[in-house]
Design a protein that fits this description.
By secondary structure, the chain is an alpha/beta fold. About 50% of the residues lie in helices and about 10% in strands. Helix 6 links the parallel strand 2 and strand 3.
Protein backbone atom coordinates (compact mmCIF):
# COMPACT_ATOMS: atom_id res chain seq x y z
CA UNK A 1 0.00 0.00 0.00
CA UNK A 2 1.04 3.59 -0.45
CA UNK A 3 2.74 5.03 2.61
CA UNK A 4 0.49 8.04 3.14
CA UNK A 5 1.60 8.57 6.74
CA UNK A 6 0.06 11.75 8.08
CA UNK A 7 0.13 13.51 4.69
CA UNK A 8 -2.09 13.06 1.68
CA UNK A 9 -0.41 12.91 -1.70
CA UNK A 10 -0.37 16.30 -3.38
CA UNK A 11 2.78 16.16 -5.55
CA UNK A 12 2.17 14.03 -8.63
CA UNK A 13 5.12 13.01 -10.82
CA UNK A 14 3.73 11.70 -14.09
CA UNK A 15 5.43 9.99 -16.97
CA UNK A 16 3.91 11.02 -20.29
CA UNK A 17 4.43 8.47 -23.09
CA UNK A 18 2.23 5.40 -22.57
CA UNK A 19 0.84 7.02 -19.41
CA UNK A 20 -0.89 10.12 -20.77
CA UNK A 21 -0.12 9.78 -24.48
CA UNK A 22 -0.57 6.83 -26.85
CA UNK A 23 3.09 6.70 -27.81
CA UNK A 24 2.86 3.43 -29.74
CA UNK A 25 0.18 4.79 -32.06
CA UNK A 26 2.21 7.95 -32.68
CA UNK A 27 5.43 6.01 -33.14
CA UNK A 28 3.97 3.65 -35.75
CA UNK A 29 2.26 6.43 -37.69
CA UNK A 30 5.39 8.57 -37.74
CA UNK A 31 7.65 5.63 -38.62
CA UNK A 32 5.55 4.59 -41.61
CA UNK A 33 5.26 8.22 -42.77
CA UNK A 34 9.05 8.63 -42.73
CA UNK A 35 9.83 5.40 -44.56
CA UNK A 36 7.17 5.87 -47.21
CA UNK A 37 8.34 9.44 -47.78
CA UNK A 38 11.69 8.02 -48.89
CA UNK A 39 10.15 5.24 -50.95
CA UNK A 40 10.93 2.42 -48.54
CA UNK A 41 8.42 -0.40 -48.87
CA UNK A 42 7.29 -1.89 -45.55
CA UNK A 43 5.44 -5.02 -44.52
CA UNK A 44 3.85 -6.37 -41.36
CA UNK A 45 7.26 -7.11 -39.81
CA UNK A 46 8.81 -3.68 -40.27
CA UNK A 47 7.29 -1.54 -37.56
CA UNK A 48 7.27 -4.22 -34.82
CA UNK A 49 10.97 -4.80 -35.42
CA UNK A 50 11.68 -1.07 -35.37
CA UNK A 51 9.85 -0.79 -32.06
CA UNK A 52 11.95 -3.60 -30.59
CA UNK A 53 15.18 -1.94 -31.72
CA UNK A 54 14.09 1.49 -30.53
CA UNK A 55 12.92 0.20 -27.16
CA UNK A 56 16.20 -1.62 -26.67
CA UNK A 57 18.22 1.51 -27.41
CA UNK A 58 16.17 3.62 -24.97
CA UNK A 59 16.77 1.01 -22.27
CA UNK A 60 20.48 1.31 -23.05
CA UNK A 61 20.11 5.06 -22.50
CA UNK A 62 18.51 4.38 -19.12
CA UNK A 63 21.56 2.28 -18.20
CA UNK A 64 23.97 4.94 -19.46
CA UNK A 65 25.26 2.74 -22.29
CA UNK A 66 24.47 5.01 -25.25
CA UNK A 67 24.22 8.74 -25.96
CA UNK A 68 20.81 10.23 -26.72
CA UNK A 69 21.92 11.68 -30.08
CA UNK A 70 23.11 8.25 -31.23
CA UNK A 71 19.66 6.73 -30.75
CA UNK A 72 18.14 9.07 -33.33
CA UNK A 73 20.00 7.50 -36.25
CA UNK A 74 21.22 4.18 -34.82
CA UNK A 75 17.71 2.69 -34.69
CA UNK A 76 17.31 3.24 -38.43
CA UNK A 77 20.84 2.11 -39.24
CA UNK A 78 20.22 -1.21 -37.46
CA UNK A 79 16.81 -1.68 -39.07
CA UNK A 80 18.05 -0.87 -42.57
CA UNK A 81 20.97 -3.26 -42.19
CA UNK A 82 18.68 -6.05 -41.05
CA UNK A 83 16.05 -5.53 -43.77
CA UNK A 84 18.45 -4.59 -46.56
CA UNK A 85 16.93 -1.17 -47.22
CA UNK A 86 19.02 1.09 -49.46
CA UNK A 87 17.63 4.52 -48.56
CA UNK A 88 19.72 7.08 -46.68
CA UNK A 89 18.99 6.03 -43.09
CA UNK A 90 20.28 9.32 -41.66
CA UNK A 91 17.89 11.32 -43.86
CA UNK A 92 15.00 9.06 -42.82
CA UNK A 93 16.02 9.40 -39.16
CA UNK A 94 16.08 13.20 -39.42
CA UNK A 95 12.64 13.33 -41.06
CA UNK A 96 11.23 10.93 -38.46
CA UNK A 97 12.57 13.01 -35.58
CA UNK A 98 11.39 16.37 -36.92
CA UNK A 99 7.93 15.14 -37.90
CA UNK A 100 7.32 13.46 -34.53
CA UNK A 101 6.54 16.88 -33.03
CA UNK A 102 3.35 16.91 -35.09
CA UNK A 103 2.09 13.47 -34.03
CA UNK A 104 0.40 13.34 -30.64
CA UNK A 105 -2.50 11.23 -29.32
CA UNK A 106 -3.64 11.81 -25.72
CA UNK A 107 -5.32 8.80 -24.18
CA UNK A 108 -9.09 9.14 -23.69
CA UNK A 109 -9.64 10.48 -20.20
CA UNK A 110 -6.15 11.95 -19.78
CA UNK A 111 -7.41 15.54 -19.62
CA UNK A 112 -10.12 14.67 -17.09
CA UNK A 113 -7.53 12.81 -15.01
CA UNK A 114 -5.16 15.79 -15.01
CA UNK A 115 -7.99 18.13 -14.05
CA UNK A 116 -8.78 15.88 -11.09
CA UNK A 117 -5.13 15.92 -10.02
CA UNK A 118 -5.01 19.70 -10.31
CA UNK A 119 -7.81 19.93 -7.75
CA UNK A 120 -5.75 17.78 -5.36
CA UNK A 121 -2.29 19.27 -5.71
CA UNK A 122 0.57 19.89 -8.14
CA UNK A 123 1.41 17.77 -11.18
CA UNK A 124 4.76 17.57 -12.96
CA UNK A 125 5.67 15.67 -16.12
CA UNK A 126 8.80 13.48 -15.77
CA UNK A 127 10.00 12.21 -19.13
CA UNK A 128 13.05 10.94 -20.97
CA UNK A 129 11.80 12.21 -24.30
CA UNK A 130 13.32 14.83 -26.57
CA UNK A 131 12.80 18.43 -25.41
CA UNK A 132 11.27 19.89 -28.63
CA UNK A 133 9.01 16.88 -29.12
CA UNK A 134 7.80 16.68 -25.53
CA UNK A 135 7.23 20.43 -25.20
CA UNK A 136 5.16 20.43 -28.40
CA UNK A 137 3.19 17.37 -27.27
CA UNK A 138 2.43 18.87 -23.86
CA UNK A 139 1.00 21.95 -25.60
CA UNK A 140 -0.84 20.12 -28.38
CA UNK A 141 -2.36 17.61 -25.98
CA UNK A 142 -3.83 20.40 -23.86
CA UNK A 143 -1.77 19.54 -20.78
CA UNK A 144 0.03 22.85 -20.33
CA UNK A 145 -2.53 24.59 -18.13
CA UNK A 146 -3.02 21.48 -16.01
CA UNK A 147 0.58 20.94 -14.88
CA UNK A 148 3.04 22.98 -12.85
CA UNK A 149 6.01 22.07 -15.00
CA UNK A 150 7.90 19.37 -16.88
CA UNK A 151 11.26 17.74 -16.20
CA UNK A 152 12.50 16.65 -19.62
CA UNK A 153 15.75 14.72 -19.27
CA UNK A 154 17.35 16.33 -22.33
CA UNK A 155 16.79 19.71 -20.66
CA UNK A 156 17.64 18.55 -17.14
CA UNK A 157 20.98 17.07 -18.22
CA UNK A 158 20.37 13.66 -16.62
CA UNK A 159 18.29 10.71 -17.81
CA UNK A 160 15.69 8.70 -15.95
CA UNK A 161 16.14 6.62 -13.87
CA UNK A 162 19.42 8.04 -12.57
CA UNK A 163 19.64 9.32 -9.02
CA UNK A 164 20.91 12.60 -10.46
CA UNK A 165 17.65 13.01 -12.39
CA UNK A 166 15.57 12.11 -9.33
CA UNK A 167 17.54 14.53 -7.14
CA UNK A 168 17.13 17.31 -9.71
CA UNK A 169 13.36 16.86 -9.76
CA UNK A 170 13.15 16.96 -5.97
CA UNK A 171 15.42 20.00 -5.69
CA UNK A 172 13.35 21.97 -8.19
CA UNK A 173 9.90 21.44 -6.69
CA UNK A 174 9.18 23.98 -3.99
CA UNK A 175 8.26 22.42 -0.66
CA UNK A 176 9.02 18.90 -1.85
CA UNK A 177 8.56 16.19 0.76
CA UNK A 178 8.97 12.50 -0.03
CA UNK A 179 5.83 11.52 1.86
CA UNK A 180 3.69 13.93 -0.17
CA UNK A 181 4.88 12.72 -3.57
CA UNK A 182 3.92 9.79 -5.76
CA UNK A 183 5.49 8.72 -9.06
CA UNK A 184 3.20 7.30 -11.75
CA UNK A 185 4.39 5.68 -14.95
CA UNK A 186 4.30 2.65 -17.22
CA UNK A 187 7.93 1.52 -17.02
CA UNK A 188 9.48 -0.75 -14.40
CA UNK A 189 13.00 -0.04 -15.66
CA UNK A 190 12.60 3.74 -15.82
CA UNK A 191 9.74 5.06 -13.70
CA UNK A 192 9.82 2.52 -10.89
CA UNK A 193 13.59 2.70 -10.51
CA UNK A 194 13.49 6.51 -10.58
CA UNK A 195 10.80 6.51 -7.90
CA UNK A 196 13.04 4.29 -5.80
CA UNK A 197 15.96 6.66 -6.35
CA UNK A 198 13.74 9.56 -5.34
CA UNK A 199 12.49 7.58 -2.31
CA UNK A 200 8.85 8.20 -3.14
CA UNK A 201 5.87 5.89 -3.63
CA UNK A 202 5.26 4.43 -7.08
CA UNK A 203 2.15 3.36 -8.98
CA UNK A 204 2.54 1.35 -12.18
CA UNK A 205 0.13 2.42 -14.91
CA UNK A 206 -0.57 -0.76 -16.85
CA UNK A 207 -3.86 -1.11 -18.77
CA UNK A 208 -2.82 -4.63 -19.82
CA UNK A 209 -2.63 -5.86 -16.24
CA UNK A 210 0.06 -6.93 -13.79
CA UNK A 211 3.50 -7.79 -15.22
CA UNK A 212 5.01 -11.05 -14.04
CA UNK A 213 7.04 -10.56 -10.89
CA UNK A 214 5.67 -7.10 -10.04
CA UNK A 215 4.03 -6.94 -6.62
CA UNK A 216 3.61 -3.20 -6.14
CA UNK A 217 0.72 -0.80 -6.58
CA UNK A 218 -0.92 -0.94 -10.01
CA UNK A 219 -3.71 0.88 -11.84
CA UNK A 220 -5.24 -0.23 -15.13
CA UNK A 221 -7.03 3.05 -15.81
CA UNK A 222 -7.32 6.61 -14.56
CA UNK A 223 -10.27 5.83 -12.28
CA UNK A 224 -8.17 3.23 -10.47
CA UNK A 225 -5.31 5.74 -10.17
CA UNK A 226 -7.58 8.26 -8.52
CA UNK A 227 -8.92 5.62 -6.16
CA UNK A 228 -5.39 4.69 -5.10
CA UNK A 229 -4.58 8.34 -4.50
Amino acid sequence: MLSFGCNMKDIFLLDMDETLLDFLKAEEENFLWALHRFGVQTDARTYPRFHEINDGLWKMLERGEIARAEINYRRFELLFQEFGYRADFKAVASAYFKHFEEVCYPYPGAIVFLKALKERGRTYIVTNGSKPIQERHIADAGFLSLIEGAFISEDVGFNKPSKEYADYVKANIEGFENSRAVWIGDSLTSDMVCAQNAQVDFILYSPTGRPQGYGGELARNYDELLQLL
